[in-house]
Amino acid sequence: MREAFLHAAADLVHADDRVALVLADISAGADPVPALAARHPDRVVNVGIREQLMVGVAGGLALAGVRPIVHSYAPFAVERPYEQLKVDLGHQGSGAVLVSIGASYDVGSGGRTHEAPEDVALIDTLPGWTVHVPGHPDEADRLVRDAVAADGLVYLRLSDATNAAPHHGAGLVTVRRGTEGVVVAVGPVLDTVLAAVARAGRDLTVLYTTTPRPFDAAGLRAAVDALAPKHAAAPTVTVVEPYLAGTSARVVAEALADRPHRQVMLGTRREELRLYGTRAEHDAAHGLDVRQVADAL
Question: Exposure string (b/e) for 240-250, b if CB count within 10 Å is 16 or more?
């Protein structure tokens, strides 16, 4: 996904003098950024390891009519410059595309400084943001191009984890139809969810989204309405997200505010695990491997 994003960003900077790439050292030496910076030194800006400044510069560029792409690891793109996201972008009414890598624990050997399972929940406290969580490099390429072509504030969360195939479509895309309940899979957890549904032996509808914000409330309601009558009366909606468990509880509750329902929220745990390890080990520790998701279903 990172490679797909950087090449898409390079295409966009080449093609449109309204687009700029703002970095804080991360990816500054990755192909094709050095050549891009040499060709467009006025629109490829590396501020060094100063993430608050990175967002502030992007805010200034946006106020001057530029469409900035801001990029770093998730904890450095969201958590460290949170105040600048709130004030220099949101409060000023300026638009930008914020692109992170690292996700919740892609750099498992790097420890807590490089982990950001709270990033989407933090962005969700700020008004007006669109959040994209692609599950495949092809989706990442499309989403960054669409985000730059649009206006407003967009957060694009990239990960090393990917699904086997892309699934394109707006809102909630139906990947599997069932009668007993609904599962919403966000981004790169889709393949795990499908394997878990098969392991659990449940007849469940599986919905997939790369855009958890704004949430497709109408799509969820339609999927619930299509369940067998005995299940649709008080449906169980399970959301599996590759970040903090319960991040989407609010939007599911709002979508189904007028009907009884049960929520099961799966994602990274709230307590700090203080563990190093591989992605598979972190998935298991957070209950996000196939066996544990199947048990939850």
Answer: bbbbbbbbbee
Joined together, the tokens standing for residue 221 give: 């309601």
Distance CA 266, CA 247 (A): 9
* Residue 61 CA to its chain's centroid (Å): 24
SS3 of residue 178 by DSSP = coil
pLDDT digits (tens, 9 = 90+) for 5-19: 999 999 999 999 999
Helix (H, G, I), strand (E, B) or coil at 62: helix
CA 292 to the chain's CA centroid = 22
Q: What's the CA gap between 1 and 15, in Å, rounded?
A: 21
Please list, in sequence order, all residues whose beta carbon lies within 8 angstroms of the beta carbon of residue 198, skipping any fewer than 6 positions away: none
3-state helix, strand, coil in the chain (%, to 5): 40, 20, 40
Q: Is 97 helix (H, G, I), strand (E, B) or coil?
A: strand
- Residue identified by tokens 């468990």 is 245
Pick the closest to residue 222 from 279, 167, 177 (CA basis).
177
Nearest Cα neighbor of 240 from 295, 185, 161 is 185
Q: How confident is the model at residue 109 (pLDDT cuts 50, 70, 90)?
A: confident
Q: What percent of the chain has pLDDT over 90?
A: 92
Please give the model's pTM, rounded to 2 decimal places.
Answer: 0.96
- Distance of alpha carbon 207 from its chain centroid, rounded? 16
Contacts of 67 (CB under 8 A, 6+ apart): 16, 18, 19, 20, 95, 96, 97, 148
Phi, psi of 209, deg, nearest 5: -140, 145
Q: Say how many CA atoms lie within 13 Å of 77 toward its Cβ.
A: 31
